[in-house]
Design a protein that fits this description.
- The protein is mainly beta and about 425 residues long.
- It has 2 domains: about 240 residues, no CATH class; about 140 residues, Beta Barrel (Cathepsin D, subunit A, domain 1), CATH 2.40.70.
- The protein is built from 3 helices and 26 strands.
- The strands form 5 sheets. Strands 4-5-10-6-9-8 form a 6-stranded mixed beta barrel. Strands 20-19-16-17-22 form a 5-stranded mixed β-sheet, with no helix packed on it. Strands 1-2 form a two-stranded antiparallel ribbon.
């Protein structure tokens, strides 16, 4: 159970920056420092009800990962641009609302679709474009390539994607290195990431307006890689936003889990208010997010955490409470002597608020079950989450969560917002 003691940070792109403030890192949520990306969208269009869904599951993950905890996976098909035969089906792709863009491990590709069949992107200097993705617990390095991505019955054509661990990538520049490398399935915990967060690109205006270390790199055939500015359309993009329909947001619908469970199956629904199966219920609240950072506020124990976020890419609740003991052998998680019943108040930028009840178990006891679904897993926020409450995947158990994209309108409200 390698990832049981692993603060899942796949949703945290530490390379996403705030102008003048340097790099940001957190345990979840590319929303912790994202600029507004490309504009456009609209109401999201409409297709056929039921054809805008794909199954998702929380389980032990791909065999090479050695076991996973509270990770949400789906299966996708990746194709060479314009081809229906040069394709590969890839299972155990993590579903992450805390980042934007599709990333695949080179090791997960096979002979039916080698990386070379997906054209590598060329930057403004005419050189190959590589990308660094920095997380709170490490970094990934690879090429930027173009592919068609099929998820269920929906297709994102000519999508810029990152191929992590691509042998064709240049040597990793020193400015990319942050902690250990996570370029294999074993270190990454998944065969790829389906980043379907509130933003349309993975870096946005920051990378379009200037070269930012730790993000995109110009890599000439001879010489060393250097940071380079990349236009919005050339950046790794949220694939759902490129669907022909049902493209204004997503819904993650998972059943409840009240105790450690082996697996949990649910549904990922594309679009909000575009079909009968993705209408926002009248009983649900809409909580708008900061349009630059994608954050909302959470008040816990009388302290307001203004940089909070809801993120399926984090494998636990992460928040600060010095009265809860951490685990002896897993200090990144809480180990109370008995299950705690807690509450916190979530408030959107629009003033809408709701009190949310949640529980915190003894993590070491939970890990001992070897179950993949641990609904009461929590840990301290740590230095990378100052001023934040990270509502990780356990928050999604038992409630449909709606994620509306920026530059779009869903349920009559301009994104970005989350609803539940």
């Amino acid at each position: 159970m390698r990832s049981s003691w692993w603060i899942l940070s796949r949703g945290v792109l530490a390379s996403l920056v705030v102008a003048g403030s340097g790099l940001l890192a957190a345990c979840g949520g590319g929303s912790s420092g994202h600029f507004v990306g490309i504009s456009g969208g609209g109401s999201g269009g409409g297709g056929t009800p039921g054809l805008n869904t794909v199954p998702v599951i929380v389980d032990q993950g791909p065999p090479a990962a050695g076991g996973s905890t509270n990770l949400l996976y789906t299966t996708v098909t990746l194709c060479a641009p314009g081809s229906t035969t040069q394709c590969q089906t890839i299972d155990h792709v993590q579903v992450d609302t805390g980042s934007s863009g599709f990333r695949v491990l080179a090791a997960a590709l096979g002979t039916s679709l080698p990386a070379a069949d997906m054209p590598q992107a060329i930057d403004s200097h005419g050189n190959p474009l590589d990308e660094c993705t920095q997380f709170a617990d490490g970094y990934s390095w690879g090429t930027v390539r173009t592919a068609d991505l099929v998820v269920g019955n929906e297709t994102a054509a000519s999508l810029p994607v990152q191929v992590i661990g691509d042998p064709a990538a240049a040597a990793v520049p020193a400015s990319c290195v942050q902690g250990p490398a996570e370029n294999t399935v074993a270190t990454f915990g998944a065969n790829g990431i389906l980043g379907i967060g509130n933003f349309l690109t993975d870096c946005g205006a920051a990378c379009a307006n200037g070269a930012i270390s730790g993000t995109y790199y110009d890599c000439p055939p001879t010489g060393t890689c250097a940071p380079v500015a990349v236009t919005l359309n050339s950046q790794v993009q949220n694939p759902v936003a490129l669907f022909a329909a049902d493209n204004n947001g997503v819904v993650i619908d998972l059943p409840a889990a009240t105790s450690p469970t082996a697996t949990l199956a649910g549904t990922l629904i594309f679009g909000i208010g575009t079909q009968s199966d993705n209408a926002l219920p009248a009983s649900a609240g809409i909580y708008t997010l900061d349009p630059t950072y994608g954050t909302l506020s959470t008040t816990y124990n009388g302290v307001t955490n203004a940089s909070s976020f809801i993120d399926s890419g984090s494998n636990a609740y992460f928040f600060t409470d010095d009265t809860i003991p951490t685990c002896t052998n897993a200090t990144s998680f809480y180990c109370p002597t008995s299950t705690l019943q807690l509450q916190a108040l979530i408030q959107g930028q629009n003033g809408a608020n709701v009190s949310v009840a949640f529980s915190v178990d003894n993590a070491q006891n939970d890990f001992a079950t070897n179950d993949a679904v641990l609904p009461d897993l929590a840990g301290p926020a740590g230095s990378s989450l100052q001023g934040a409450f990270d509502w990780g995947l356990p928050f999604f158990y038992g409630r449909p969560v709606y994620v509306a994209f920026e530059s779009n309108t869903a349920a009559g409200v301009a994104g970005p917002w989350v609803g539940f």
